[in-house]
Design goal:
CATH superfamily of the largest domain: Spore Coat Polysaccharide Biosynthesis Protein SpsA, Chain A
Structural class: alpha+beta
Distance between the termini: 35 Å
CATH topology of the largest domain: Spore Coat Polysaccharide Biosynthesis Protein SpsA, Chain A
GO biological process, one term: GDP-mannose biosynthetic process
Oligomer: single chain
Protein name: mannose-1-phosphate guanylyltransferase
Radius of gyration: 24 Å
Helix content: 10-25%
Number of domains: 3
Catalytic activity: alpha-D-mannose 1-phosphate + GTP + H(+) = GDP-alpha-D-mannose + diphosphate
Keywords: GTP-binding, Isomerase, Nucleotide-binding, Nucleotidyltransferase, Transferase
Pfam family, one: NTP_transferase
Length: 452
Amino acid sequence: MINIILCGGNGTRLWPISRTLMPKQFVKLFDDKSLFQLTVDRNSKVCDKKFIVSNAEQYFLAQDQLEENSTFLLEPIGRNTAPAIALACLALNKDEIVLVTPSDHLIKDEKEYEKVLNKAKELAKENNLVTFGITPTFAETGFGYIESVNQFDVKAFHEKPNFETAKKYLKAGNYYWNSGMFCFRAGVFLDELKKYSPKIYNASLNAFNNANKDEIIRIKYDDMLSIPEDSIDYAVMEKSNIVKVVPSNISWSDVGSFDALYEEMPKDKDGNTINQNHICIDSKNNLVYGNERKIATVDVENLIIIDTGDALLVSKKGSSQKVKKIVEEVRKNSELHNIHLTGYRPWGTYTVLEDSDGYKIKRIVVKPGQRLSLQKHLHRNEHWIVVSGTATVSIEGRTFLVRPNESTYIKAGEVHRLENNGKLPLVLIEAQVGEYTGEDDIIRLDDDYERK
């Protein structure tokens, strides 16, 4: 069985922890492991291989968190789950059984999970499309539901209900939360997709046939854009007559809100999440997250307090679903929805130390053997000061070394590149000066990582 891991999604309901370029599945929230890493570890016990579907920006995050090589398919833009799964299945033997999982779910009862997967695998071998229905523990209005009959047969899929309807579902006992996990033969899914959503199937087939297939499968932008956008539920599962559901009581959470995150994190005797930076005076039942500075609370209860250095969120527990509205406001006039103070790149990281009108100061770390793209900027000059390691610098065709406590200067418009040919990380301070210092003022002329 092959585990297809879907890495799309930005997790906007967990802003400011989750950003477009560091979404929640890659944030190390649990014992210094990310949800992505926990997904890989969990499914490696029952699956022979991993097949990861990701966008190009998140590929390097996923690769850095893997302990062994995996097959990657990179999408230039997202078109929802039906195309993503179709493209992955097209790369596999049609008789291969696949387990499709999101990368951002938490499952704590792994023994029961293995039992559930074994049952799903049995049903998939009989050429069924199998979904996993999470046994509901309360009347949840934020999930879709699956209605079952005769234990494993699906009667209907239901949209997110209102509270009264959710209570009826809970009482009935044959309604399950839609987990977004699936199991089937690759060829059976493609046949059903072709039958019920032929436009998605044909466009996906064309995109896959035109893709670059070296070590990584890279779908071309225009081909991806031509695929109709739709979820696997709408495109196939709600239309097919060979769908089965496996009831799953596996201590599952999609960690889709701060209220859900609070339930999963360890807490002290007063119900506050454990945080070494939290100074607590008579405060109870609070989610406190922050790694960069002290957070002090006095006489407060049932709050969500999230500090990420460049953004602070304070909310009542029970209201965290409204965070998406905050993200909509943030998008209007800043990049805070997109990236943290520390940005992760395939060559290393950069951390913004100060950002003001006319200048920006960064700390840049380049991994051994890596180099930035050959590039130029139209609106800023750059000063590089090496702190540790040795930088190999190219400016306008001239290449030279810059050692600790030495510096160099790049004028706006000059073609340049930074490399670390040493065996230790290269650390430098970059001071940008100019009328515009945004991250999109980069014209890449050559790039080892095929970014545009």
